């Protein structure tokens, strides 16, 4: 029997397994995916949002705790647990040396359109390289890993973990357990049920695409909720991005993102604008657009730009629809040309003179049109014109286990002493809604490491060096 059983195979699960093993515990990991698809959504990640008070290796300038907190407060609209959020923020400032020790490499700061060289540390080789590094380190340390082993239920007694039951019926016992097995984003039936129907009688989730793994079906999340575990989060809240409508159903990842929204206008199937495209910098606001598109007819929209925008954003993997006139573009994308021209003409007429600067919150705005465009508003008048089709792309869901600074699962407000959760399973404690680039990795790394240490301690093994880091993250 292992000391610690870790269920899941992505970043949070790996952080838990590594920390528990460093503490001296024997560890078994169960990954539902086959080896070639291991890593959950972490395969698709690119960076980690990091607090830092001064320039650090791959991070420029400073990104202090208070600014990180204010960024999080803005995107969540205050629906966040401040002590836990601040714990994650402080943890993000100190985790990179440990990540490097386990083989993760960071790349030099990026400049240009993404505007995140100050706030985010990028992984050399992306999420796949990060996941592979952690798996290599886990194997060297003696963590036992089983692939293609989905768990269907847990055996619990008075809020304590007893055993995991796999889909094949095998019963696996351990002294403690960490649930790092993701949300329910890949479970399309659950998505439809959660989102329901809109006023037009359409199932809102009908056209959702899943940016990440097909293996996050939410099996243990549902089991835990049904078993009476304390949960947190709205099932319709998720990291939900407007992505290319031509993306595959699963695992499209980062390359399906459309990054030109702030450089033009977005219209729905009725050829009307519906939100301020220039509200804030794209890395801070890109994750609201999936939800916005989900609320439009047919869950579809188009990002419209002209030639002036080309070269100012990361080009999508698929070419957009191209036309020499706006009328021709409307016909090509199948929206009513008359309404489309009314929308574009009203927008163009509302654009005020200003100094365009995509690296700053500039003074290029509209006046007299609803919705307003508050920054980067330029007349769309230079052929050729481009349209990119958008659909909601779900990255991960926020419904999860209510927890505290120990990462313990709770039943009726009482913390379990040997059952912990990490990653997407607890993200809803910090992310009530909204998202800002890289914060999912901050949450997964913080709670993953804490869950691993506490699971090991529950089994009688104490990590030799993590105590001071925990105290710092907790604000002591």
Task: Describe what you observe in this structure.
The protein is α/β, with parallel strands linked by helices. Helix content is 28%, strand content 18%. The chain contains 13 helices and 19 strands. It has helices spanning 11-22, 65-76, 82-92, 96-101, 126-141, 188-195, 219-226, 282-285, 289-294, 326-333, 337-350, 439-458, 466-473, and strands at 4-7, 27-30, 47-49, 120-122, 144-146, 151-157, 160-166, 171-173, 176-179, 209-210, 231-232, 238-244, 265-268, 301-305, 321-323, 385-397, 400-401, 408-411, 414-421. The chain has a six-stranded mixed beta sheet, covered by helices on one side. Strands 10, 12, 13, 14, 15 and 16 form a six-stranded mixed beta sheet that branches. The chain has a three-stranded antiparallel beta sheet with strand order 6-7-8, covered by helices on one side. Strand 1, helix 1 (11-22) and strand 2 (27-30) form a beta-alpha-beta unit. Helix 3 (82-92) crosses helix 13. The protein is globular, with a radius of gyration of 23 Å.
Helix-strand blueprint:
Layout: E1 4-7, H1 11-22, E2 27-30, E3 47-49, H2 65-76, H3 82-92, H4 96-101, E4 120-122, H5 126-141, E5 144-146, E6 151-157, E7 160-166, E8 171-173, E9 176-179, H6 188-195, E10 209-210, H7 219-226, E11 231-232, E12 238-244, E13 265-268, H8 282-285, H9 289-294, E14 301-305, E15 321-323, H10 326-333, H11 337-350, E16 385-397, E17 400-401, E18 408-411, E19 414-421, H12 439-458, H13 466-473
Parallel strand pairs: 1-2, 1-9, 2-5, 9-19, 10-16
Antiparallel strand pairs: 3-4, 6-7, 7-8, 11-17, 12-16, 13-14, 14-16, 15-16, 18-19
Protein name: FAD-dependent tricarballylate dehydrogenase TcuA
Organism: Tardiphaga alba
Cofactor: FAD
